[in-house]
Amino acid sequence: MTLQNVLPWILRAQQDGWAVGAFNANTLEQVQAIVAAAQAESAPAILQVSHRALNYIGSGNEIQGLKYIAAIGKIATESVAVPIALHLDHGTEREVLQAIALGFTSVMFDGDELSYEENVATTKRLCDMAHSNGVCMEAELGEVPKPDGLAYDESAIALTQPDEAVQFVEATGIDTFAVALGSVHGLKTKQISLDLERLKVIRERVSVPLVLHGSSGVSDGDIQQGIAMGLCKINVATQLSQAFTGAVREILSKDTELVDPRKYLAQGRSAQAEIVRERIRFLGASGKAN
What we know:
With 290 residues, the protein is an alpha/beta fold. It contains 11 helices and 8 strands. The protein is globular, with a radius of gyration of 18 Å. The relative contact order is 0.17.
């Protein structure tokens, strides 16, 4: 199948009370694991790559990284018969424009370093460009911290304000809206509880599909409640890397003479595919490809 704009499935998920999984990839093997898992579960899925992953894939050049992942994503998607979207996660303005040109079917602009007014203006301009190319547009208001393994200051978390959320969505025309409810990127244990009361208020006032970033650190109970209350795109990254790296670490610890990367990377790929399948089932997306 060719790359799809996943918005119709997200809208279905919003209506029916489940969520589409958006899974981050940093390597070819992780891409393969994601699409294979979606195929096995007969589920729509979003293959996504972040700004920092682009830097890695492109050996320090984000635009080169975009070119790599655009080609890899298209080929991977052709290997399966379920709808797969290719999504740019937390992109800069330049990256968003390049991703659209390269055939990404979904993009997210991260304007958290801009003033509110600049964020609105830039997001709207990029949204118009995305829509003219049949691309789904996501943006965020508030901030989900990206501590990258370091300690983070809970008091510095900027939660999404309902009044601003209404204004932002109306002013920009975005398709999906990432809300900051207390989650944090990159946490290795499920220690976070979401501000579900805030989610309830935002859901009542904002009609577009809502997105949760940083789900790996959020308790499954809160994610389930959040989906029931209107979250319909759930981003998953750290859980995938934990499964992949854990499998690689285990096989290398058992065989200290092993040097063929295909033998240990294949184990990582299989382990990640299993956790993607588990998350797809958890989100209620299994069997929803048609």
